[in-house]
Design brief:
CATH architecture of the largest domain: 3-Layer(aba) Sandwich
Largest sheet: 4 strands, antiparallel
Helix content: 25-40%
CATH superfamily of the largest domain: LigB-like
Oligomer: single chain
Number of domains: 3
Strand order of the largest sheet: 7-6-8-13
Order of helices and strands: EEHHHEHHEEHHEEHEEHEEHEE
Mean pLDDT: 95
Strand content: 15-25%
Shape: globular
Number of strands: 13
Distance between the termini: 51 Å
Length: about 375
């Protein structure tokens, strides 16, 4: 922490929230020392943008150093606040690689951040990795989703392309409140419908060339596509965890829901006019720390929680809309066990449970059992 009460820029003076600083200084690993700020510009570089965008607001300038992810998470928890609080984590990405090598490395780093994963982010990927690790801990705990708004490196200016530095702007938002823009929702829906229709009409998977896409469409996301016919399930396939851009995941999920769900025959031309398509975009799954079925049942939030159960080679998932057909948590859990190929009463030391939330939209009321 810095002992200053104000920070000055050419745009004016910003007050420091000294009450928040005092709160942070109560942590045993936090100290007040101006020396580390002398040659560090990772805070100052953001202040003019804050002043222009937010006006005369109080700031809490913090240097992280070699703090652990858990320590950063603790500090963030103390000052997180509500909608009146904006958290900025400042870090460069790769340093002094050639343009193409840097871009490839940085795109991998950005993808990991969008998946809320630390790996493979090390010193070569982000110099501010310790602060970033702590943010990822907090983001997972709060069920957030991350979207890269833009990526550039210094070679994209008039700089030398032989030795560049990478930069990205990545926004974090609560998954339960996050919503795609209407144009992106329409595109997601169009992709899913196109994959289904093309497969029925041509009998093969299309080859798609993606053109200008929004940041949300390029973000790493897990999705499910559900097909219904006359109110009954006709196919439901998706990704349990994010491992590719949303546009690719939607296309693959829609194709498999129509032609690769082992519970159903491939969709036919006769069925196509009546089939309805629904899409779910999943948040990062979070472990539920329970030791028994009873504890799991008590932890669940009906109508909001999607649930994944794993036990050895057995795994199954229910999307949140399944609560509409199975509102009782005990019945819900046991139905998911049966879907995983386990006995309804089964629970072992290897049983693991994970929850997630979804952004869902589509053509119909979704069926009881995806």
């Amino acid at each position: 922490m810095h002992p200053a009460t104000h920070w000055a820029t050419p745009l004016g003076v910003l007050p420091v929230d000294r009450a928040a600083i005092t709160k942070l200084l109560s942590l045993p690993f936090v100290a007040e020392n101006p020396a580390p700020f002398t040659r560090e510009h990772g805070i100052e570089v953001h202040l003019p943008f804050i002043q222009r965008a937010l006006g005369d607001v109080a700031i809490i300038p913090v240097l992280v150093g070699q703090a652990t992810p858990q320590q950063v998470d603790q500090a963030l928890h103390l000052v997180w606040g509500g909608p009146e609080t904006a958290i900025i984590i400042s870090s460069d990405l790769s340093h002094y690689l050639g343009y193409d090598e840097a871009r490839a490395k940085d795109i991998g780093t950005v993808a990991a951040i969008e998946r809320l994963q630390r790996e493979p982010i090390g010193a070569a990927e982000a110099c501010g990795r310790h602060a970033l690790y702590g943010l990822l801990e907090r983001a997972r705990a709060l069920d957030m989703r991350a979207t890269c708004l833009d990526y550039r490196n210094s070679g994209d200016t008039h700089g030398d392309k032989a030795r560049v530095v990478g930069y990205a702007s990545i926004a974090f938002e609560y998954a339960q409140q996050a919503r795609l823009a209407e144009a992106d929702r329409k595109l997601v829906f169009d992709i899913a419908q196109f994959m289904v229709r093309f497969g029925v009409e041509k009998g093969r998977k299309p080859s798609i060339t993606w053109r200008a896409l929004s940041p949300s469409m390029k973000a790493q996301r897990a999705s499910f596509v559900t097909l219904t016919l006359n109110g009954a399930l006709r196919g439901c396939i998706g990704s349990v965890s994010a491992h590719r851009p949303l546009h690719d995941d939607i296309a693959e999920s829609a194709w498999k829901a129509a032609f690769g769900d082992p519970r159903f025959k491939p969709l036919t031309a006769e069925e196509l006019p009546a089939v309805k398509v629904d899409v779910s975009i999943l948040s990062q799954a979070r472990p539920i720390p329970v030791q028994s079925e009873a504890e799991l049942i008590a932890e669940l939030d009906p109508d909001r929680d999607g649930l994944i159960l794993r036990d050895g080679r057995h795994q199954a998932l229910f999307l949140p809309h399944v609560w509409g057909g199975i509102p009782d948590p005990r019945v819900f859990v046991r139905a998911l066990k049966r879907k995983a190929g386990l006995a309804p009463e089964h629970w072992s030391a290897e049983t693991r449970a994970f929850r997630f939330s979804v952004e869902s939209f589509g053509q119909s009321d979704t069926p009881d059992h995806p």
